[in-house]
Amino acid sequence: MVTGTANPLEALQMALKREKDAEAFYLQAAQTAEEEGARKMYEFLAGEERKHQRIIQDEIDKNFLKEM
Questions:
Q1: Nearest 5 degrees, angle CA 8-CA 12-CA 18?
Q2: 47, containing H or E segment
Q3: Residue 13 and residue 65 in contact, taking contact as beta carbons nearer than 8 Å
Q4: What is the pLDDT of residues 5-46, one digit of tens each?
Q5: How far is Cα 66 from Cα 16, in angstroms, rounded to an integer?
Q6: Which of 8, 34, 45, 67 has the most CB atoms in a 10 Å sphere around its CB?
Q7: How far is it, in rounded angstroms, from Cα 58 to Cα 62?
Q8: How far is CA 2 from CA 22, 27, 50, in A?
Q9: Separation CA 3–CA 10 (nearest Å)
Q10: pTM reported for the whole predicted model
Q11: DSSP states of 17-44 as a string?
């Protein structure tokens, strides 16, 4: 984990990790949910986290990978 002030790339990498962690959490919750409605909600939320990951990764690719 970055302490102090993160540069923009570090901030995006940190955000990407948190989105991946959130997706994993929701997928685990979906697997253990006893009610179908709860399972569907967790699966939906996991999908939303995947969307966020794509947005953040696109931002990294567009703004930082071109510099390498």
A1: 145
A2: helix 36-63
A3: no
A4: 889 999 999 999 999 999 999 999 999 999 999 999 999 999
A5: 18
A6: 45
A7: 6
A8: 19, 26, 23
A9: 10
A10: 0.85
A11: HHHHHHHHHHHHHHHH-SSHHHHHHHHH
